[in-house]
């Protein structure tokens, strides 16, 4: 592999201070600290199942709520993903996954297209999982795709919000892993750029 597919991105605002490092050709090692336990668990699952090494250090105004930390982590992760992918030469571009977790089933399809769009169909029954707001699941993925330039369609069904959310993050991991894999030398676009 000729180019390093690693990136480190930091973003500091009045609300958050976040640094993320990613290695797309890693082994799924992670060090995650956002101050939101369930969110840490989801990001760890994403790293483990994608095979991307991921370090996330996020400090923010959790005394308000977790909104800014989750949103800004999505932004920085998207920026790091875009940086690590570089010109996207040789990547598979498309990836999909169907992941069950007990009664829940999640499906995710991604296109690393350079264009951001999210469609997500998942209903949650509880306002929170631990201290993590279930409303933030969609917002995290909106922030990620917007910063990364990725088109993603997601859906989840099931009775347990923990299971649905975790299945979504794991399906996200496998879909991204499959889309980001190097399988040739060409840019997979009739335009010649992604």
TrEMBL record:
Taxonomy, superkingdom: Archaea
Which chemical reaction does it catalyze? D-erythro-1-(imidazol-4-yl)glycerol 3-phosphate = 3-(imidazol-4-yl)-2-oxopropyl phosphate + H2O
Where in the cell? Cytoplasm
Keyword check for Ion transport: no
Q: Name one Pfam family in it.
A: IGPD
Where mainly found?
Answer: cytoplasm
Q: Does the keyword Cytoplasm apply?
A: yes
- Pathway the protein acts in: Amino-acid biosynthesis; L-histidine biosynthesis; L-histidine from 5-phospho-alpha-D-ribose 1-diphosphate: step 6/9
EC annotation from Swiss-Prot or TrEMBL? 4.2.1.19
User: What does UniProt give as GO cellular component?
Assistant: cytoplasm
What are the alphabetically sorted keywords of the record?
Amino-acid biosynthesis, Cytoplasm, Histidine biosynthesis, Lyase
Q: Which GO terms describe its biological process?
A: L-histidine biosynthetic process
Q: GO MF annotations for this entry?
A: imidazoleglycerol-phosphate dehydratase activity
The text of the family note is:
Belongs to the imidazoleglycerol-phosphate dehydratase family.
What is this protein called in UniProt?
Imidazoleglycerol-phosphate dehydratase
Supply the source organism's classification. Answer: Archaea, Methanobacteriati, Methanobacteriota, Stenosarchaea group, Methanomicrobia
């Amino acid at each position: 592999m000729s180019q390093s597919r690693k990136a480190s991105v930091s973003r500091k605002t009045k609300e958050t201070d976040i640094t993320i490092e990613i290695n797309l050709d890693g082994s799924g090692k992670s060090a995650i600290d956002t101050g939101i336990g369930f969110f840490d668990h989801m990001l760890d699952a994403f790293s483990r199942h994608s095979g991307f090494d991921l370090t996330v250090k996020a400090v923010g105004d959790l005394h308000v709520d977790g909104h800014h930390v989750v949103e800004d982590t999505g932004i920085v992760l998207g920026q790091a993903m875009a940086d690590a992918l570089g010109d996207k030469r040789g990547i598979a571009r498309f990836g999909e996954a169907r992941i069950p977790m007990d009664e829940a089933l999640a499906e995710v399809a991604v296109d690393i297209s350079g264009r951001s769009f999210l469609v997500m169909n998942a209903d949650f029954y509880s306002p929170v999982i631990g201290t993590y707001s279930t409303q933030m699941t969609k917002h995290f993925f909106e922030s990620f795709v917007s910063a990364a330039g990725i088109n993603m369609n997601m859906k989840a069904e099931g009775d347990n919000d923990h299971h649905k959310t975790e299945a979504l993050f794991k399906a996200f991991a496998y879909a991204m892993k499959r889309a980001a894999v190097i399988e040739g030398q060409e840019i997979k676009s009739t335009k010649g750029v992604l």
